[in-house]
Protein backbone atom coordinates (compact mmCIF):
# COMPACT_ATOMS: atom_id res chain seq x y z
CA UNK A 1 0.00 0.00 0.00
CA UNK A 2 2.74 2.34 0.93
CA UNK A 3 4.54 1.54 -2.26
CA UNK A 4 1.39 2.29 -4.26
CA UNK A 5 0.96 5.64 -2.57
CA UNK A 6 4.54 6.49 -3.29
CA UNK A 7 3.95 5.63 -6.91
CA UNK A 8 0.86 7.91 -7.05
CA UNK A 9 2.74 10.77 -5.48
CA UNK A 10 5.54 10.38 -7.91
CA UNK A 11 3.17 10.33 -10.84
CA UNK A 12 1.39 13.51 -9.70
CA UNK A 13 4.63 15.29 -9.12
CA UNK A 14 5.79 14.34 -12.56
CA UNK A 15 2.56 15.56 -14.12
CA UNK A 16 2.69 18.93 -12.33
CA UNK A 17 6.31 19.31 -13.18
CA UNK A 18 5.57 18.74 -16.83
CA UNK A 19 2.54 21.06 -16.78
CA UNK A 20 4.26 23.92 -15.10
CA UNK A 21 7.36 23.46 -17.12
CA UNK A 22 5.70 23.50 -20.51
CA UNK A 23 4.09 26.95 -20.14
CA UNK A 24 5.55 30.39 -20.30
CA UNK A 25 8.66 31.35 -18.48
CA UNK A 26 6.95 32.32 -15.19
CA UNK A 27 5.52 28.87 -15.01
CA UNK A 28 8.99 27.40 -15.02
CA UNK A 29 9.76 29.24 -11.84
CA UNK A 30 6.66 28.03 -10.10
CA UNK A 31 7.94 26.90 -6.71
CA UNK A 32 4.84 24.95 -5.87
CA UNK A 33 5.45 22.10 -8.20
CA UNK A 34 7.97 20.05 -6.15
CA UNK A 35 6.11 20.55 -2.93
CA UNK A 36 2.87 19.51 -4.49
CA UNK A 37 4.54 16.48 -5.89
CA UNK A 38 5.41 15.37 -2.44
CA UNK A 39 2.02 16.02 -0.87
CA UNK A 40 -0.55 15.35 -3.50
CA UNK A 41 -2.20 12.06 -3.22
CA UNK A 42 -1.41 9.48 -5.85
CA UNK A 43 -5.11 9.53 -6.85
CA UNK A 44 -4.55 12.90 -8.48
CA UNK A 45 -2.40 11.40 -11.15
CA UNK A 46 -3.52 11.73 -14.69
CA UNK A 47 -5.58 8.87 -15.92
CA UNK A 48 -4.10 6.45 -18.30
CA UNK A 49 -6.40 7.60 -21.10
CA UNK A 50 -5.18 11.13 -20.78
CA UNK A 51 -1.47 10.98 -20.81
CA UNK A 52 0.35 14.15 -20.12
CA UNK A 53 2.60 13.66 -23.00
CA UNK A 54 -0.36 13.39 -25.35
CA UNK A 55 -1.74 16.70 -24.06
CA UNK A 56 1.60 18.29 -24.47
CA UNK A 57 1.85 17.13 -28.01
CA UNK A 58 -1.56 18.54 -28.80
CA UNK A 59 -0.70 21.93 -27.41
CA UNK A 60 0.88 24.49 -29.74
CA UNK A 61 4.58 24.75 -29.50
CA UNK A 62 5.38 27.84 -27.45
CA UNK A 63 8.11 30.11 -28.60
CA UNK A 64 10.28 32.15 -26.41
CA UNK A 65 9.74 35.90 -26.48
CA UNK A 66 11.93 37.62 -28.96
CA UNK A 67 12.32 34.58 -31.11
CA UNK A 68 12.17 35.12 -34.80
CA UNK A 69 11.08 33.07 -37.69
CA UNK A 70 7.80 31.93 -39.12
CA UNK A 71 5.05 31.58 -36.64
CA UNK A 72 1.59 30.20 -36.98
CA UNK A 73 -1.32 32.51 -36.74
CA UNK A 74 -2.72 32.26 -33.29
CA UNK A 75 -6.46 31.92 -32.77
CA UNK A 76 -8.38 34.57 -30.98
CA UNK A 77 -8.03 34.14 -27.24
CA UNK A 78 -11.24 33.92 -25.27
CA UNK A 79 -12.27 37.03 -23.48
CA UNK A 80 -10.09 39.16 -25.68
CA UNK A 81 -11.11 41.79 -28.19
CA UNK A 82 -11.11 40.52 -31.69
CA UNK A 83 -7.57 40.31 -32.94
CA UNK A 84 -6.61 42.15 -36.06
CA UNK A 85 -8.30 40.63 -39.09
CA UNK A 86 -6.01 39.06 -41.60
CA UNK A 87 -7.48 41.12 -44.39
CA UNK A 88 -10.35 43.41 -45.23
CA UNK A 89 -12.50 45.53 -42.96
CA UNK A 90 -11.35 48.32 -40.70
CA UNK A 91 -7.95 47.23 -39.60
CA UNK A 92 -6.39 49.07 -36.72
CA UNK A 93 -3.14 47.28 -37.40
CA UNK A 94 -2.44 48.89 -40.72
CA UNK A 95 1.02 49.55 -42.02
CA UNK A 96 1.23 53.01 -43.54
CA UNK A 97 4.95 53.08 -42.94
CA UNK A 98 5.56 50.26 -45.36
CA UNK A 99 3.20 51.53 -48.02
CA UNK A 100 4.66 53.54 -50.89
CA UNK A 101 4.74 57.21 -50.13
CA UNK A 102 1.73 58.96 -51.53
CA UNK A 103 -0.24 55.77 -51.89
CA UNK A 104 -3.31 55.26 -49.84
CA UNK A 105 -2.60 53.30 -46.73
CA UNK A 106 -3.76 49.71 -46.96
CA UNK A 107 -6.30 48.54 -44.45
CA UNK A 108 -3.97 45.79 -43.30
CA UNK A 109 -0.66 44.24 -44.21
CA UNK A 110 1.08 41.00 -43.62
CA UNK A 111 4.14 40.93 -41.50
CA UNK A 112 7.02 39.95 -43.74
CA UNK A 113 8.98 38.76 -40.74
CA UNK A 114 6.16 36.53 -39.57
CA UNK A 115 4.04 35.26 -42.43
CA UNK A 116 0.41 34.96 -41.52
CA UNK A 117 0.65 37.56 -38.78
CA UNK A 118 -0.80 41.05 -39.15
CA UNK A 119 1.51 43.99 -38.75
CA UNK A 120 0.75 46.09 -35.72
CA UNK A 121 2.44 49.45 -35.82
CA UNK A 122 1.98 52.25 -33.32
CA UNK A 123 2.34 55.62 -35.01
CA UNK A 124 3.19 58.73 -33.01
CA UNK A 125 3.46 62.11 -34.73
CA UNK A 126 4.43 65.55 -33.50
CA UNK A 127 4.11 68.92 -35.16
CA UNK A 128 5.40 72.28 -33.95
CA UNK A 129 3.63 74.98 -35.92
CA UNK A 130 4.31 78.69 -35.95
CA UNK A 131 1.18 80.82 -36.19
CA UNK A 132 0.15 84.33 -35.32
CA UNK A 133 -0.33 84.85 -31.62
CA UNK A 134 -4.00 85.69 -31.93
CA UNK A 135 -4.80 82.56 -33.97
CA UNK A 136 -4.11 79.93 -31.32
CA UNK A 137 -7.75 79.18 -30.57
CA UNK A 138 -8.80 79.07 -34.20
CA UNK A 139 -5.92 76.80 -35.24
CA UNK A 140 -6.53 74.37 -32.39
CA UNK A 141 -10.18 74.10 -33.39
CA UNK A 142 -9.16 73.49 -37.01
CA UNK A 143 -6.87 70.68 -35.91
CA UNK A 144 -9.60 69.05 -33.84
CA UNK A 145 -12.10 69.35 -36.68
CA UNK A 146 -9.60 67.72 -38.98
CA UNK A 147 -9.19 64.75 -36.66
CA UNK A 148 -12.93 64.34 -36.24
CA UNK A 149 -13.43 64.41 -40.02
CA UNK A 150 -11.07 61.45 -40.28
CA UNK A 151 -12.82 59.46 -37.59
CA UNK A 152 -10.55 60.53 -34.77
CA UNK A 153 -11.04 62.26 -31.50
CA UNK A 154 -9.29 64.62 -29.14
CA UNK A 155 -7.00 63.05 -26.57
CA UNK A 156 -6.01 66.15 -24.67
CA UNK A 157 -5.66 69.89 -25.01
CA UNK A 158 -3.85 72.83 -23.48
CA UNK A 159 -3.81 76.51 -24.33
CA UNK A 160 -1.31 76.03 -27.13
CA UNK A 161 -1.35 72.32 -27.96
CA UNK A 162 -3.71 69.49 -28.70
CA UNK A 163 -3.29 65.73 -28.73
CA UNK A 164 -5.28 63.96 -31.40
CA UNK A 165 -6.09 60.29 -31.83
CA UNK A 166 -6.80 59.34 -35.41
CA UNK A 167 -7.24 55.97 -37.09
CA UNK A 168 -3.84 54.69 -38.15
CA UNK A 169 -5.02 54.33 -41.72
CA UNK A 170 -5.52 58.12 -41.81
CA UNK A 171 -2.30 59.01 -40.05
CA UNK A 172 -0.38 60.36 -43.02
CA UNK A 173 -3.34 62.18 -44.52
CA UNK A 174 -4.08 63.95 -41.25
CA UNK A 175 -0.43 64.86 -40.78
CA UNK A 176 -0.27 66.42 -44.23
CA UNK A 177 -3.36 68.52 -43.57
CA UNK A 178 -2.19 69.58 -40.14
CA UNK A 179 1.07 70.87 -41.61
CA UNK A 180 -0.92 73.39 -43.62
CA UNK A 181 -2.29 75.07 -40.50
CA UNK A 182 0.93 77.01 -39.95
CA UNK A 183 4.63 77.19 -40.62
CA UNK A 184 6.21 73.85 -39.64
CA UNK A 185 9.02 74.39 -37.15
CA UNK A 186 9.50 70.74 -36.28
CA UNK A 187 7.99 67.51 -37.48
CA UNK A 188 8.48 64.07 -36.04
CA UNK A 189 7.03 60.67 -36.85
CA UNK A 190 7.71 57.55 -34.86
CA UNK A 191 6.56 54.10 -35.93
CA UNK A 192 6.91 51.23 -33.49
CA UNK A 193 6.30 47.74 -34.84
CA UNK A 194 4.69 45.69 -32.09
CA UNK A 195 3.54 42.77 -34.25
CA UNK A 196 6.15 40.44 -32.86
CA UNK A 197 5.44 41.49 -29.32
CA UNK A 198 1.76 40.96 -29.88
CA UNK A 199 2.35 37.53 -31.39
CA UNK A 200 4.51 36.48 -28.46
CA UNK A 201 1.78 37.56 -26.09
CA UNK A 202 -0.70 35.52 -28.06
CA UNK A 203 1.45 32.41 -27.81
CA UNK A 204 2.07 32.84 -24.12
CA UNK A 205 -1.57 33.42 -23.51
CA UNK A 206 -2.58 30.31 -25.38
CA UNK A 207 -0.10 28.25 -23.44
CA UNK A 208 -1.30 29.60 -20.13
CA UNK A 209 -4.88 28.91 -21.10
CA UNK A 210 -4.04 25.35 -21.91
CA UNK A 211 -2.25 24.94 -18.62
CA UNK A 212 -5.19 26.36 -16.81
CA UNK A 213 -7.49 23.86 -18.48
CA UNK A 214 -5.31 20.99 -17.37
CA UNK A 215 -5.12 22.29 -13.81
CA UNK A 216 -8.87 22.61 -13.89
CA UNK A 217 -9.08 18.93 -14.68
CA UNK A 218 -6.75 18.13 -11.79
CA UNK A 219 -8.94 20.22 -9.55
CA UNK A 220 -11.97 18.22 -10.56
CA UNK A 221 -10.19 15.04 -9.52
CA UNK A 222 -8.78 16.37 -6.26
CA UNK A 223 -9.86 14.29 -3.29
CA UNK A 224 -8.37 16.08 -0.32
CA UNK A 225 -8.72 19.68 0.75
CA UNK A 226 -5.01 20.06 0.63
CA UNK A 227 -4.98 19.04 -3.01
CA UNK A 228 -7.81 21.45 -3.82
CA UNK A 229 -6.07 24.32 -2.11
CA UNK A 230 -2.81 23.68 -3.83
CA UNK A 231 -4.33 23.48 -7.28
CA UNK A 232 -6.55 26.50 -6.70
CA UNK A 233 -3.52 28.45 -5.62
CA UNK A 234 -1.84 27.61 -8.88
CA UNK A 235 -4.99 28.48 -10.82
CA UNK A 236 -5.07 31.88 -9.16
CA UNK A 237 -1.49 32.52 -10.21
CA UNK A 238 -2.28 31.48 -13.74
CA UNK A 239 -5.36 33.67 -13.95
CA UNK A 240 -3.37 36.67 -12.79
CA UNK A 241 -0.82 36.11 -15.50
CA UNK A 242 -3.54 35.57 -18.08
CA UNK A 243 -5.19 38.85 -17.10
CA UNK A 244 -1.91 40.69 -17.41
CA UNK A 245 -1.25 39.28 -20.86
CA UNK A 246 -4.74 40.08 -22.05
CA UNK A 247 -4.45 43.62 -20.76
CA UNK A 248 -1.17 44.12 -22.53
CA UNK A 249 -2.62 42.77 -25.76
CA UNK A 250 -5.63 45.05 -25.48
CA UNK A 251 -3.30 48.01 -24.99
CA UNK A 252 -1.21 47.17 -28.03
CA UNK A 253 -4.29 46.63 -30.10
CA UNK A 254 -5.75 49.99 -29.12
CA UNK A 255 -2.47 51.80 -29.61
CA UNK A 256 -1.99 50.44 -33.08
CA UNK A 257 -5.58 51.04 -34.10
CA UNK A 258 -5.36 54.76 -33.40
CA UNK A 259 -2.30 56.91 -33.93
CA UNK A 260 -1.39 59.80 -31.68
CA UNK A 261 -0.57 63.20 -33.13
CA UNK A 262 0.47 66.09 -30.93
CA UNK A 263 0.20 69.57 -32.41
CA UNK A 264 1.99 72.35 -30.54
CA UNK A 265 1.58 75.98 -31.57
CA UNK A 266 4.23 78.67 -31.26
CA UNK A 267 3.69 82.39 -31.69
CA UNK A 268 5.46 84.12 -34.52
CA UNK A 269 8.18 86.31 -33.04
CA UNK A 270 7.67 90.04 -33.19
CA UNK A 271 10.43 92.26 -34.56
CA UNK A 272 12.84 93.44 -31.90
CA UNK A 273 11.66 96.57 -30.17
CA UNK A 274 14.94 98.40 -30.71
CA UNK A 275 14.58 98.11 -34.46
CA UNK A 276 11.03 99.38 -34.27
CA UNK A 277 12.12 102.34 -32.23
CA UNK A 278 14.87 103.19 -34.69
CA UNK A 279 12.48 102.93 -37.61
CA UNK A 280 10.02 105.20 -35.84
CA UNK A 281 12.77 107.68 -35.22
CA UNK A 282 13.63 107.63 -38.88
CA UNK A 283 10.04 108.27 -39.87
CA UNK A 284 9.45 111.08 -37.42
CA UNK A 285 11.30 114.28 -38.32
CA UNK A 286 13.20 115.97 -35.55
CA UNK A 287 11.23 118.58 -33.68
CA UNK A 288 11.62 122.06 -35.12
CA UNK A 289 13.83 124.46 -33.22
CA UNK A 290 12.03 126.81 -30.90
CA UNK A 291 10.90 130.00 -32.57
CA UNK A 292 13.10 133.01 -32.03
CA UNK A 293 11.88 135.62 -29.56
CA UNK A 294 9.61 138.25 -31.12
CA UNK A 295 11.53 141.10 -32.56
CA UNK A 296 11.10 144.33 -30.67
CA UNK A 297 10.07 147.10 -32.99
CA UNK A 298 11.32 150.47 -32.00
CA UNK A 299 9.27 152.66 -34.25
CA UNK A 300 10.16 156.35 -34.16
CA UNK A 301 6.48 157.15 -33.57
CA UNK A 302 6.05 158.51 -30.05
CA UNK A 303 2.29 158.78 -30.09
CA UNK A 304 1.85 155.01 -30.67
CA UNK A 305 2.60 154.42 -27.01
CA UNK A 306 -0.31 156.73 -26.14
CA UNK A 307 -2.76 154.40 -27.87
CA UNK A 308 -4.07 152.15 -25.12
CA UNK A 309 -7.15 151.42 -23.09
CA UNK A 310 -5.87 153.01 -19.93
CA UNK A 311 -5.27 156.33 -21.62
CA UNK A 312 -8.66 156.21 -23.30
CA UNK A 313 -10.53 155.54 -20.09
CA UNK A 314 -8.58 158.04 -17.99
CA UNK A 315 -11.01 160.85 -18.32
CA UNK A 316 -9.28 163.14 -15.89
CA UNK A 317 -6.20 163.19 -18.02
CA UNK A 318 -5.72 166.22 -20.14
CA UNK B 1 0.72 193.60 -28.36
CA UNK B 2 -2.12 193.47 -30.88
CA UNK B 3 -0.15 190.98 -32.95
CA UNK B 4 0.36 188.77 -29.94
CA UNK B 5 -3.32 188.75 -29.09
CA UNK B 6 -4.28 188.00 -32.69
CA UNK B 7 -1.84 185.12 -32.82
CA UNK B 8 -3.21 183.59 -29.64
CA UNK B 9 -6.77 183.86 -30.91
CA UNK B 10 -5.89 182.15 -34.16
CA UNK B 11 -4.02 179.41 -32.37
CA UNK B 12 -6.86 178.84 -29.97
CA UNK B 13 -9.33 178.54 -32.81
CA UNK B 14 -7.09 176.07 -34.61
CA UNK B 15 -6.94 173.78 -31.59
CA UNK B 16 -10.60 173.98 -30.61
CA UNK B 17 -12.21 173.60 -33.98
CA UNK B 18 -10.06 170.69 -35.22
CA UNK B 19 -10.70 171.60 -38.77
CA UNK B 20 -11.43 168.68 -41.15
CA UNK B 21 -12.71 166.33 -38.41
CA UNK B 22 -16.34 166.00 -37.49
CA UNK B 23 -17.69 163.36 -35.16
CA UNK B 24 -21.33 162.77 -34.37
CA UNK B 25 -21.38 161.69 -30.73
CA UNK B 26 -23.52 158.60 -30.15
CA UNK B 27 -26.72 158.98 -28.17
CA UNK B 28 -26.03 159.09 -24.47
CA UNK B 29 -22.45 160.26 -24.97
CA UNK B 30 -21.04 163.58 -23.80
CA UNK B 31 -18.12 165.21 -25.57
CA UNK B 32 -15.19 166.01 -23.37
CA UNK B 33 -13.61 169.37 -23.91
CA UNK B 34 -10.05 170.54 -23.66
CA UNK B 35 -8.37 167.33 -24.82
CA UNK B 36 -4.63 167.26 -25.38
CA UNK B 37 -3.93 163.75 -26.47
CA UNK B 38 -7.17 163.32 -28.35
CA UNK B 39 -8.74 165.46 -30.98
CA UNK B 40 -12.08 164.23 -29.87
CA UNK B 41 -13.27 162.26 -26.91
CA UNK B 42 -16.70 161.44 -25.56
CA UNK B 43 -18.01 159.15 -22.86
CA UNK B 44 -21.32 157.81 -21.69
CA UNK B 45 -22.51 157.40 -18.12
CA UNK B 46 -21.22 153.81 -17.86
CA UNK B 47 -17.69 154.82 -18.79
CA UNK B 48 -17.73 153.66 -22.43
CA UNK B 49 -15.39 156.09 -24.15
CA UNK B 50 -14.90 157.05 -27.77
CA UNK B 51 -11.70 158.91 -28.69
CA UNK B 52 -10.27 160.16 -32.00
CA UNK B 53 -6.70 161.19 -32.80
CA UNK B 54 -5.39 162.74 -35.92
CA UNK B 55 -1.67 162.48 -36.52
CA UNK B 56 0.73 163.30 -39.30
CA UNK B 57 1.40 160.41 -41.66
CA UNK B 58 5.05 160.31 -40.71
CA UNK B 59 6.67 158.07 -41.64
CA UNK B 60 4.60 157.96 -44.75
CA UNK B 61 2.64 154.72 -44.66
CA UNK B 62 -0.52 153.19 -45.99
CA UNK B 63 -3.40 151.63 -44.10
CA UNK B 64 -1.65 148.27 -43.83
CA UNK B 65 1.42 149.87 -42.31
CA UNK B 66 -0.39 151.86 -39.68
CA UNK B 67 -2.85 149.18 -38.74
CA UNK B 68 0.03 146.73 -38.50
CA UNK B 69 2.13 149.08 -36.39
CA UNK B 70 -0.72 149.73 -33.98
CA UNK B 71 -1.60 146.04 -33.76
CA UNK B 72 2.01 145.04 -33.06
CA UNK B 73 2.28 147.70 -30.39
CA UNK B 74 -0.92 146.59 -28.64
CA UNK B 75 -0.12 142.88 -28.83
CA UNK B 76 3.26 143.46 -27.28
CA UNK B 77 1.49 145.32 -24.51
CA UNK B 78 -0.66 142.28 -23.74
CA UNK B 79 -3.81 143.01 -25.70
CA UNK B 80 -5.62 139.99 -27.11
CA UNK B 81 -6.85 140.56 -30.65
CA UNK B 82 -10.11 138.73 -31.27
CA UNK B 83 -11.47 140.16 -34.50
CA UNK B 84 -10.46 142.37 -37.45
CA UNK B 85 -12.88 144.12 -39.81
CA UNK B 86 -12.69 146.39 -42.80
CA UNK B 87 -14.74 149.53 -42.32
CA UNK B 88 -15.67 152.38 -44.63
CA UNK B 89 -16.85 155.83 -43.66
CA UNK B 90 -19.81 157.45 -45.27
CA UNK B 91 -17.33 159.40 -47.38
CA UNK B 92 -15.86 156.17 -48.73
CA UNK B 93 -12.63 156.22 -46.80
CA UNK B 94 -11.50 152.71 -46.04
CA UNK B 95 -10.17 151.78 -42.69
CA UNK B 96 -9.18 148.78 -40.55
CA UNK B 97 -10.80 147.94 -37.26
CA UNK B 98 -9.14 145.54 -34.80
CA UNK B 99 -10.99 144.46 -31.68
CA UNK B 100 -9.17 143.47 -28.47
CA UNK B 101 -9.96 142.10 -25.06
CA UNK B 102 -8.09 143.40 -22.08
CA UNK B 103 -8.28 143.11 -18.31
CA UNK B 104 -8.56 146.54 -16.73
CA UNK B 105 -8.82 146.97 -12.99
CA UNK B 106 -9.88 143.36 -12.61
CA UNK B 107 -12.69 143.58 -15.15
CA UNK B 108 -12.86 142.35 -18.72
CA UNK B 109 -12.96 145.26 -21.16
CA UNK B 110 -13.46 145.60 -24.88
CA UNK B 111 -11.17 147.86 -26.88
CA UNK B 112 -11.60 148.70 -30.53
CA UNK B 113 -8.97 150.52 -32.58
CA UNK B 114 -9.93 151.73 -36.04
CA UNK B 115 -7.34 153.29 -38.37
CA UNK B 116 -7.88 155.52 -41.43
CA UNK B 117 -5.17 156.94 -43.63
CA UNK B 118 -6.00 160.02 -45.59
CA UNK B 119 -2.99 161.14 -47.56
CA UNK B 120 -0.90 163.02 -45.04
CA UNK B 121 -2.93 162.14 -42.01
CA UNK B 122 -3.47 159.08 -39.88
CA UNK B 123 -6.74 159.01 -37.93
CA UNK B 124 -7.22 156.54 -35.10
CA UNK B 125 -10.57 155.96 -33.48
CA UNK B 126 -10.50 154.20 -30.13
CA UNK B 127 -13.52 152.84 -28.32
CA UNK B 128 -13.44 150.97 -25.06
CA UNK B 129 -15.36 150.12 -21.97
CA UNK B 130 -16.40 147.49 -19.51
CA UNK B 131 -17.64 144.31 -21.16
CA UNK B 132 -20.91 144.61 -19.25
CA UNK B 133 -21.71 147.98 -20.86
CA UNK B 134 -19.82 147.99 -24.11
CA UNK B 135 -22.10 145.50 -25.86
CA UNK B 136 -25.05 147.88 -25.61
CA UNK B 137 -23.07 150.60 -27.33
CA UNK B 138 -21.46 148.62 -30.13
CA UNK B 139 -23.99 149.64 -32.81
CA UNK B 140 -23.94 153.26 -31.77
CA UNK B 141 -20.15 153.28 -31.88
CA UNK B 142 -20.16 151.64 -35.29
CA UNK B 143 -22.54 154.31 -36.56
CA UNK B 144 -20.33 157.05 -35.17
CA UNK B 145 -17.25 155.58 -36.87
CA UNK B 146 -19.00 155.27 -40.20
CA UNK B 147 -20.27 158.86 -39.85
CA UNK B 148 -16.82 160.32 -39.39
CA UNK B 149 -15.93 163.21 -41.67
CA UNK B 150 -12.18 163.12 -42.05
CA UNK B 151 -11.92 166.05 -44.43
Structural write-up:
The complex is a heterodimer of chains A (318) and B (151). Chain A has ten helices and five strands; from the N terminus they run ααααβαββαβααβαα. Chain A has 318 residues and is α+β, with helices and mostly antiparallel strands. Among the domains of chain A are: 2-65 and 197-253, no CATH class; 121-195 and 259-267, 2-Layer Sandwich (Alpha-Beta Plaits). A five-stranded mixed sheet of chain A has the order 2-3-5-1-4. The longest helix of chain A is centred in the C-terminal third of the chain and has 33 residues, at 225-257. Chain A starts with a helix and ends in a 5-residue tail after the last helix. Chain B is of the alpha+beta class and 151 residues long. Chain B has one domain (2-146): Protein Transport Mog1p, Chain A (3-Layer(aba) Sandwich). Chain B has a seven-stranded antiparallel sheet. Chain B is globular and about 40 Å long. The N and C termini of chain B lie far apart (34 Å). Chain A binds chain B through residues 294, 296-297, 299-301, 303-313, 315, 317-318, and chain B through 32, 34-37, 41, 43, 47, 49, 51, 53, 55, 59, 69-70, 72-74, 76-77, 79, 100, 102, 104, 109, 111, 113, 124, 126-129.
Number of strands of chain B: 7
Beta-strand content bin of chain B: 35-45%
Q: What are the segments of chain B in which pLDDT stays under 50 over at least 5 consecutive residues?
A: 8-17
| Average pLDDT, all residues of chain A | 69
The oligomeric state of the chains shown is: heterodimer
The main β sheet of chain A shows up as: 5 strands, mixed
Strand order of the largest sheet of chain B: 1-2-3-7-6-5-4
**CATH top-level class of chain B:** Alpha Beta
Spatial sequence of strands, sheet with the most strands of chain A: 2-3-5-1-4
Largest beta sheet of chain B, briefly?
7 strands, antiparallel
First CA to last CA of chain B: what distance? Answer: 34 Å
Estimate the mean pLDDT confidence of chain B.
86
Radius of gyration of chain A: 42 Å
Poorly predicted residue ranges of chain A: 20-109
Amino acid sequence: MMAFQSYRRGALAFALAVLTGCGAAPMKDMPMAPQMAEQVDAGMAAPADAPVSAEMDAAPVPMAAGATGPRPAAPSPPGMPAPPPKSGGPAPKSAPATAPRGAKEPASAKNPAAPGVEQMIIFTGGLDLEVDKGEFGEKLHDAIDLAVEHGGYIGGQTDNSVTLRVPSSHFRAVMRKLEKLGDVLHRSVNAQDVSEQYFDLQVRLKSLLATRDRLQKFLDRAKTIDEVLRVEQELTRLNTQIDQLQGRMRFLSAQSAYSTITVALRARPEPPKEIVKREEKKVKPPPPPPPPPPRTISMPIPWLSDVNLDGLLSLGRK
Amino acid sequence: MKRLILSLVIAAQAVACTPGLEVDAPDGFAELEEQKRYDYRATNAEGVVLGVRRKKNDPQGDLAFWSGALDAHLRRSGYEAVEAHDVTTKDGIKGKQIRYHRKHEGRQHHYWVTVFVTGDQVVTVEAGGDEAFFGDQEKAIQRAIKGLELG
